[in-house]
């Protein structure tokens, strides 16, 4: 279940901005080890293995987290970029041979894996729950960053009257053109519910949401990476998309305003740090999470990747130049809804099946 291509996309944006592989590795790890080898194959140095989202580039975190943690503790952070999917974490823990100490997951994944006994409960004596915006301090996961699904649109196509709501997104008569939503349906189901009226999409009525989405066919497309949806806009095969705010920000900049987005109706999601049960580093994984809660380090992460922070102190201290990109800023957050991770934890499998069936029906 590849739910977090999102973080991978932030690194794709960095590469598009001219960062070389060497620069990426140096900046993101701050000089700490950043290898795609499992922990067993590393030298017997004191280390923590952080599983993030891979590919040719290591999907790690910013230089502040890696370098400063090693400086403070003497423990290096090794980044494994093979991708901590829900299934991968389950398999690893079930094998009894756990090599990961920390993983990047979604809130609902943390709830599902916590309920099945595959994650350790967060040690909130070490991790400060007050430094995690509500409701992203989960029993089995600690919010580390934030991002939103937003409405992006072609300003040339809709110069006279730009779309400003999900109701407009689903109005193909007054706003013609193709539409694009995430292949794994996060954001899309909420958008469909809000198009019915109101700003409270939960609990999502799958029948209502999927019927609304089906009416966009045959002009409904799905995307899995930020590059894909960007190409759809370039090729003019779509006029609107429900996509990650980080990619929408980049599109607005790169197209000099030809593509724009609105925070109105955005859906705020967390990136969550989870600890697989039986992790080799033990409590040190929670010490790393606590280190990453520092407001200054989270602001640096926002500066580099355009994600939002999870620590309210970072939101309050965000430099003015970054506030337009931060979904947690009061003016931006007030226009959005916060994801109901419990609904997704309870309904993801059913939603995935029914969404796929809807796409396949003629």
UniProtKB/TrEMBL annotation:
Organism, as annotated: Dongia rigui
Keywords for this protein: Signal
Protein name: Extracellular solute-binding protein
InterPro entries linked: SBP (IPR006059), TAT_signal (IPR006311)
Annotated signal sequence range: none
Pfam family, any one: SBP_bac_8
SUPFAM superfamilies in alphabetical order: Periplasmic binding protein-like II
């Amino acid at each position: 279940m590849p739910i977090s291509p999102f973080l991978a996309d932030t690194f794709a944006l960095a590469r598009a901005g001219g960062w070389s592989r060497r620069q990426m590795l140096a900046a993101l790890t701050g000089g700490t080890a950043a290898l795609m080898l499992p922990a067993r194959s590393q030298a017997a140095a004191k280390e923590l293995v952080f599983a993030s989202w891979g590919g040719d580039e290591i999907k790690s975190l910013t230089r502040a987290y890696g370098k400063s943690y090693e400086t403070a503790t003497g423990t290096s952070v090794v980044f494994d970029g093979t991708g901590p999917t829900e299934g991968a974490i389950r398999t690893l823990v079930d094998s009894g041979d756990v090599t990961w100490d920390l993983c990047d997951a979604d809130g609902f994944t943390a709830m599902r894996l916590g309920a099945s006994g595959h994650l350790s409960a967060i040690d909130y004596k070490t991790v400060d729950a007050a430094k995690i915006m509500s409701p992203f301090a989960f029993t089995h996961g600690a919010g580390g960053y934030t991002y939103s699904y937003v409405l992006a649109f072609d300003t040339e196509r809709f110069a006279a009257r730009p779309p400003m709501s999900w109701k407009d997104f689903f109005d193909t008569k007054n706003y013609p053109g193709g539409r694009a939503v995430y292949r794994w349906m996060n954001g899309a189901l909420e958008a469909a519910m809000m198009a019915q009226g109101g700003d409270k999409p939960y609990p999502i009525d799958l029948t209502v949401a999927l019927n609304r989405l089906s009416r966009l066919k045959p002009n409904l497309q799905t995307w899995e990476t930020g590059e894909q949806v960007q190409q759809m806009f370039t090729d003019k095969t779509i006029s609107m998309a429900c996509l990650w705010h980080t990619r929408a920000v980049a599109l607005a900049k790169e197209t000099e305003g030809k593509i724009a987005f609105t925070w109105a109706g955005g859906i705020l999601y967390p990136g969550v740090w989870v600890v697989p049960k039986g992790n080799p580093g033990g409590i040190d994984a929670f010490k790393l999470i606590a280190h990453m809660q520092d407001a200054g380090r989270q602001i640096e992460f926002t500066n580099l990747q355009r994600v939002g922070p999870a620590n309210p102190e970072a939101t309050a201290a965000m430099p003015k130049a970054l506030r337009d990109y931060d979904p947690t800023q009061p003016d931006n957050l007030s226009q959005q809804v916060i994801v109901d991770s419990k609904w997704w934890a309870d309904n993801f499998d059913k939603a995935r099946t029914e969404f796929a069936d809807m796409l396949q029906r003629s």
